[in-house]
Every structure is written in C-alpha cells, then in structure tokens.
C-alpha cells in the first residue's frame, strides 16, 4: 500500500522528490470526485506524486466528521492502493484542533519541501472563499495552488477576481516550468458530481454507492457499518 507517514518527531517522514500535489479534505468518505481532481491536477501540472491528507478537524466545519480518523485514513489508503502516483499522509491527524492549510504547508516546508515543489489542490467552490482562510494572503506564498473546476462551480468567477488575477495562470497546454515561482493554476476538467454528504445519506438510506467510491472503500464502509442510520456520529477523531 502506497502510504506516506509523518510522525511527530519527524523521523518517520518519507521524503518524496519532485513535484508534490497536496489534496486535503475530510474524506468522510473519499470519493471519485476527489480522485478525479487529483488526476486532473497531476496531468495539468505534471505532478510526480499526489499526497492525500485527511483532516483531523476541518477548520470550516462546526460538526465533527461522521467517521473516526482511523477509518478516514484507511479509506484514503485504500483509494491509493495500487496507484504509484498517490500517497497518504497523517500529517494533520497527529495534531489536536482544526486543520489549517497554511499550517500543514508550513510543516511540509519544515520537512524540506520548498514552496515551488508543492501544489495544493482545491476545488473552485472552496477556493472562492480563499479570503476567509486562515493566514490569508500569506498562505498563497507557501505553495502553488491548483484550482480545479467542480460541477456547478466553473472557473469564470475566479478569473474575474481582480486582486488575484496577476497570480493566476491557465494550466492548459503546457505544465508549469520546474522551479517556477508559486502561482494559482486554473484547471478546467470534468470531475464526477458527487459529495461526501450525499454519499453518507445514500448509505444511511441503504442505497448503493457503486461507481461513486473505489470498490475497496465501499467494502470498508460496509464492513465497519460506517454512515448507516444506526451508526452514531463520531465525537472522536482518532
């Protein structure tokens, strides 16, 4: 299983060379839309690896994730299984409190990853609220940002943002040059129209989720009775 592990002492960190995409999320559960975004970013920006980073407690959500962190990490690892260009990191799961993108990028920098080596992947819907993110605008200097179109959320509105327009680049035709200064890369791509909340509702209603999540993830959800109407929401993150 392709797994990237970082521990509190730093000596469990597996150093990855080249261009690293960083895709964070609650992954409650991870689904095809996440994987489509990772693949689109990898192709557009010539990434060597995409790192899946399950969040301990997403800063933008008041409620706790339904599934404990151990299951969300396991599902991300199952989604990455057999994919040489995917890794999974527990870098956000080892700390109490909310998971901030800026802090995670700082921790990766402390482990030797330069800003121009990192490509933080996010959806157009989430990036639309970038001004409300922790440590904005400094967070934009800690890595490249790769903004992928989402169903119902095109890139047109982002292109019209005057305050960020100078930093925006179209990730089409040719990949960013190696060592290029950090920028915001816009990726027009088709991704599956699926959300974790909709998947949880489907599981709770006994509806199938075939094709919406990797088969191994669907089996994990069924085996551990995650998201069923009888399973309580988790207040524990680990």
Describe this entry's structure for a reader.
The protein is α/β, with parallel strands linked by helices and 238 residues long. The protein has one domain (20-195): HUPs (Rossmann fold, 3-Layer(aba) Sandwich). It has seven helices and seven strands. The chain has helices at 32-45, 69-80, 101-110, 124-127, 156-159, 196-204, 215-223; strands at residues 20-25, 49-54, 86-88, 118-123, 144-148, 168-170, 184-187. A seven-stranded parallel beta sheet has the order 3-2-1-4-5-7-6. Strand 2 (49-54), helix 2 and strand 3 (86-88) form a beta-alpha-beta unit. It is globular and about 50 Å long. It starts with 19 loop residues before the first strand and ends in a 15-residue tail after the last helix.
Describe the structure concisely for a colleague:
The protein is α/β, with parallel strands linked by helices and 238 residues long. Helix content is 26%, strand content 14%.
List keywords for this structure.
globular; 7-stranded parallel beta sheet; Rossmann fold; 238 residues; alpha/beta
- The CATH topology turns out to be Rossmann fold
Total count of strands: 7
CATH architecture: 3-Layer(aba) Sandwich
Largest sheet: 7 strands, parallel
CATH class: Alpha Beta
Helix content class:
25-40%
Q: Figure out the total of helices.
A: 7
* Helix/strand structural class: alpha/beta
Radius of gyration from the alpha-carbon trace, in angstroms: 17 Å
Mind telling me the CATH superfamily name? HUPs
Low-pLDDT segments:
6-12, 233-238
Record the SSE blueprint.
Layout: E1 20-25, H1 32-45, E2 49-54, H2 69-80, E3 86-88, H3 101-110, E4 118-123, H4 124-127, E5 144-148, H5 156-159, E6 168-170, E7 184-187, H6 196-204, H7 215-223
Parallel strand pairs: 1-2, 1-4, 2-3, 4-5, 5-7, 6-7
Helix pairs in contact: 2-7
């Amino acid at each position: 299983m392709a797994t990237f592990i970082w521990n509190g002492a730093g000596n469990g960190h597996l150093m990855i060379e080249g261009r690293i995409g960083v895709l964070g999320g609650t992954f409650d559960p991870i689904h095809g839309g996440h994987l489509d975004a990772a693949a689109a970013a990898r192709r557009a920006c010539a990434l060597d690896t995409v790192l899946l980073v399950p969040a301990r407690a997403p800063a933008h959500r008041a409620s706790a994730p339904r599934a404990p962190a151990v299951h969300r990490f396991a599902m991300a690892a199952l989604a990455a299984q057999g994919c040489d260009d995917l890794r999974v990191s527990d870098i956000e799961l080892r700390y109490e409190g909310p998971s901030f993108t800026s802090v995670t990028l700082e921790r990766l920098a402390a482990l030797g990853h330069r800003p121009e080596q990192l490509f933080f992947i996010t959806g157009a819907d989430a990036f639309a609220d970038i001004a409300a993110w922790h440590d904005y605008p400094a967070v934009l200097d800690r890595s490249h940002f790769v903004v992928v179109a989402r169903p119902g959320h095109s890139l047109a509105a982002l292109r019209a943002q005057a305050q960020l327009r100078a930093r925006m680049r179209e990730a089409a035709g040719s990949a960013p040059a190696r060592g290029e200064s950090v920028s915001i890369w816009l990726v027009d791509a088709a991704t599956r129209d699926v959300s974790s909340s909709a998947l949880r509702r489907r599981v709770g209603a006994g509806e199938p989720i075939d094709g919406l999540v990797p088969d191994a993830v669907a089996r994990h959800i069924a085996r551990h009775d995650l998201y069923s109407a009888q399973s309580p929401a988790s207040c524990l993150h680990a």
